[in-house]
Amino acid sequence: MERSTRTEQDLVRLRDDTGKELDALRAELEALKGRRWPLGVLGAVAGVVGTLTAVVGLFLR
């Protein structure tokens, strides 16, 4: 009976620890999601920079 009770306590402690770690990982993931740039914005910035480079190249010839 003692082994069963100790095993149950260990399982409860393990579940609590795992839950805390998962909560920390979820919070970190949400923080990373908030800092990323959408691909559309990156594409637009790359297009504008490319266009400006082409225009500057035409006028410097």
Helices and strands, with pairings:
Blueprint: H1 2-35, H2 39-59
Strand content: under 5%
Rounded to an integer in angstroms, the radius of gyration calculated over CA atoms is: 27 Å
Question: Roughly how many Å apart are the termini?
Answer: 89 Å
Q: Could you estimate the helical fraction of the residues in percent?
A: over 70%
What is the residue-averaged pLDDT?
Answer: 91
Number of DSSP strand runs: 0
List low-confidence stretches. none
Keywords for this entry:
61 residues, mainly alpha, 2 helices
Describe this structure in words.
The longest helix is centred in the first third of the chain and has 34 residues, at 2-35. Helix content is 90%, strand content 0%. With 61 residues, the chain is mainly alpha-helical. It has helices spanning 2-35, 39-59.
Please outline what is shown here.
With 61 residues, the protein is mainly α.
